[in-house]
Design a protein that fits this description.
Shape: elongated
Number of helices: 4
Number of strands: 13
Strand content: 25-35%
Strand order of the largest sheet: 5-13-6-7-10-9-12
Order of helices and strands: EEHEEHEHHEEEEEEEE
Structural class: alpha+beta
Radius of gyration: 19 Å
Helix content: 10-25%
Largest sheet: 7 strands, mixed
Distance between the termini: 50 Å
Length: 218
């Protein structure tokens, strides 16, 4: 990877987005996360936050302390160095999240997938998922890869409120809603596990690279 592949784009007047590629893959996501860790470790002056995504990362900076041209050049240089090194995987944790499978969409998911409710529950709870990234709202972790048999498009009509702790699926991913928010995922269960608590040292329970297994409870 080089500057010819990395692209910097302004995001308003306080952020720059570095694009790493156009096709989502596990390798590209690994490089994005590696670059994010390297940028945090570099302590680049006036950088305030670093937010990774599937194809890019966005860096927020203080425009009173630096210019877009200066910060984007430093970011591109740093990302380029990471691309030509052999980054190590970030330390990860394993999580077991108890789930009561009684979600409002469980039967509809089973019908759409051509499976029994029991098959849906068994499939969802038998896999080990990886945290790709956090987004949407604080503590919302996108987990992959959902069993192909359960992969459904998002609901055509999102609900105005999904309760915190709701376990949902959409496309190739599953997630736990950390807060009461609108949402368009199919809800198949719920958990009492607190996914986001601003009073904790690490407010979000999950971090990129962590693994998750859902355990069925009565």
């Amino acid at each position: 990877m080089s500057h010819t592949q990395l692209r910097a784009h302004p995001l308003g007047d306080t952020a720059v987005t570095i694009t790493f590629g156009a096709v989502r893959s596990a390798e590209l996501l690994f490089r994005v996360h590696s670059a994010a860790r390297a940028l945090k470790a570099a302590n680049i002056p006036h950088v305030e936050d670093i937010v990774p995504a599937y194809l890019a990362l966005t860096v927020f900076y203080d425009p009173l302390g630096t210019s877009y041209e200066e910060v984007s050049r430093k970011l591109l240089d740093a990302c380029d160095r990471v691309a030509h090194s052999t980054p190590k995987p970030a330390p990860s944790r394993e999580h077991r999240i108890p789930v009561k499978y009684d979600g409002i969409d469980l039967e509809a998911v089973a019908a759409s997938a051509g499976l029994s409710v029991e098959d849906v529950v068994a499939s969802h709870s038998s896999r080990i998922y990886t945290v790709d990234l956090l987004g949407f709202v604080p503590g919302f972790a996108y987990l992959s890869e959902l069993d192909a048999a359960l992969q459904l498009p998002r609901r055509a009509q999102p609900r105005p409120r999904i309760a915190a702790g709701s376990v949902g699926i959409a496309a190739a991913q599953t997630a736990v809603y950390p807060l009461d928010t609108p949402g368009g995922w199919h809800i198949i269960g719920r958990t009492q596990t607190v996914m986001f608590d601003p009073t904790r040292d690490a407010p979000a329970l999950l971090a990129p690279g962590d693994t998750v297994r859902f355990e069925r409870i009565p």
